[in-house]
Amino acid sequence: MEDLEFIKILILRLFLACLVGVIIGLEREFKGKFAGIRTHTIVALGAALAMIVSKYGFSDSSHYDAERIAAQIVSGIGFLGGGLIFIKKDYISGLTTAAGIWTTAIIAMSIGAGMYIIGICSSILILILQLFLKEEFGIFSFIKRPYTIDIVLDNPMSIEKIYKYFKKENIKFSEKSINYRDDKLILEVQYHNKNENELIGIINFLRENRRVFKFSLD
């Protein structure tokens, strides 16, 4: 029979791994991401359990290799990350969440292996990175993601009016493409956002422009 104290230690590792998953997933949940608390917690629990099995489950065999299961966790968790990444035109979303899922699994593996301090410190680090290395606030708040604006117009003369507005307001932009579709002119520009007020101003200008049939912003 397995030592009761040893079993308690393993169960503690599983609970600690789940706690790490909850904490990391909570930050993603608050941001409205698809992979939130449940996904991160289940991944953490599974990774920790697999690490425990890898380290202790086959210790009575002379040919067992603990590294093989651990390696499979690292590569196998990629299928979850792949399902979280979305690509639309030139914009990619889900990379941070996918990376967080992968790192959560590695952290849980370290806890499953009994490396508590490393696992907890890594959890704190990933939370700091998720909270402060982003556009809204933090040490890199000056970096702004460019937006792509698709504008449907009635004639080429309308493009000049839009460009005049951008230049008048000192808005940084670059023309990506001009296409005709269904007797309509589709202008695609890339816009580098300065602040929220500037973005609201562009939206209001396009809404009030009678030559603009519709527009979208990604």
Automatic annotation (TrEMBL):
Keywords: Cell membrane, Membrane, Transmembrane, Transmembrane helix. Residues 14-134 form the MgtC/SapB/SrpB/YhiD N-terminal domain. InterPro entries: MgtC/SapB/SrpB/YhiD_fam, MgtC_SapB_SrpB_YhiD_N. Belongs to the MgtC/SapB family. GO terms for cellular component: plasma membrane. It is found in: Cell membrane. It holds the Pfam family MgtC. It is a multi-pass membrane protein. The keyword Nucleotidyltransferase does not apply. The chain crosses the membrane at residues 6-26, 38-57, 69-87, 99-132. This is Mg2+ transporter-C family protein.
